[in-house]
Amino acid sequence: MIAAWNRFWFAPGRVELVALMRIYVGGCLLMKKLGLWGLHRVDQIDVRLRFSARGADAYVGNGFRDPVFDWVPRLSLQEMYALDQLQLVGALLLTVGLGTRVVAPALAALHLFFILHSNWTYVHHNNVYAAFLVLLAFAPAADHYSLDALLRKGPAPPRRVTSLRLMQVLVCAIYFSTTFGKLNHGWLSGRMMEVLEANDHFRGPFAPTLWAMSGPKLVSHFTLWAEGICSFGLCFPQTRLLAAFSGVMLHTGIDMMMPVTTFSYQMMSSYVLFLDPEPRRTHLCAPPWLAWTARGLDWAARLTVTTGPLAVTTPDGRAFTGLRALREVGLRLPLTFPAAFALGLPFTLWGRNTRRGAIAA
Amino acid sequence: MPVLRQAGVLGFLGILLFLIVRTHVRADDRWGFSMFRDVQMVNVRYRWVDAEGGTWPADASPYIRGDGRVMLPRRDPVDWIVGLGAYTDQAHEICRFLITVRPAEGAVACEAEVRHQRFAEGPWETIVLRWPPP
After folding, report:
1. What is the pLDDT of residues B124-134, one digit of tens each?
2. CB B81 to CB A198 under 8 A?
3. Residue B33 and residue A177: Cβ atoms within 8 Å?
4. Residue B18: closest CA among B36, B7, B30
5. pTM (two decimals)
6. What is the residue extent of each domain of chain A?
């Protein structure tokens, strides 16, 4: 038991995924600060520097603050704006991975200060940022894909998987918590969605169509399903794809209908934490055009690509040819996995029948 | 170092468990991931504002339930929502409704004084909303 615990939390391992998460967290924070978010406002987006905390007047100007944190120094709006600019610069440095050992803790401290100073704590995606920034502050997040790694002499030092595991547990806990919190009459009956719709929370050019296609019950129940399966399904290879697919559909839908700033991108990017940490373990042998395409789309470094007749060998030793091989490749590429998953359902059923037949024989 | 590592992991899991339990079990949560669980009590009062800044009470009683919670025109009471964001949205809408549809004589604006209590034992705090905005 203790050995399993230690192996889970402290085994030596690769931390490239933590570095990817650093880029995503920094990138999302940067997008939030630049006002570059929201498919629902796709016709209004203008890229500009937002030198003011979003809703600072509403959050800070009204003096609305948690009494528990009265000891935190009270700043003026101008001082808050200055800190907000500092956070923008910090997000940029975190994304490119420059001075990460200093920047990540400083950014976490600054974010926590914002939360203690105002009622930011009531905005759930700020809490998610806070949790990830605190974990990144202690993680070897600049070992890979960073300017720090480029400037460093020699290879990255050996690491343990602890920081990766902490982030994985955090993502599952967030999904579990939000699913548990929605198990009430409002969500189960669909009334929650009716109220949101009636209060004009659904916005943008896509909302009327999506709302007309789905309605309150379907949206409510799909939300419960997607968040529920993400709370545990991301952990297991058998359900990981279904969970990620459901999560992407949920968060894309939210982003198309509701002003939740970068929350959808934060959660979707966290799925990268559940990828196979050993890169290029799937071997693809393919005609030149397909090999070239696969290399171009293989952003998560899942494939080792050679040219030749089409064949795929997966990390667990299974070999595929033909359409099954194409499906296996499609499942491993970020842009094609939803289609590959949907198109592959008949193959999955056929495969089961074949196995059952073989056993019977 | 091994002890520190174990303590770090256990501390993280402890904090996570604390937040989840506090969010869902305690009635006076403030750490909630759920946006509608941040406020326990809300009470809204409405008043008219004239051109000189004078105020007098506005009768918004058709839109307010007996317990002080907000009920929107044309809509059922949303009694299971206990979030300040939802209440302020609705208070804004009621103000806009009153001043644009049923304004009192001499009124140029409507204000909503939203009193809220975030913890069962905490102090009452107040936010004043105005339509049209000043």
Report:
1. 778 888 888 77
2. no
3. yes
4. B30
5. 0.71
6. 11-158, 175-274, 282-360
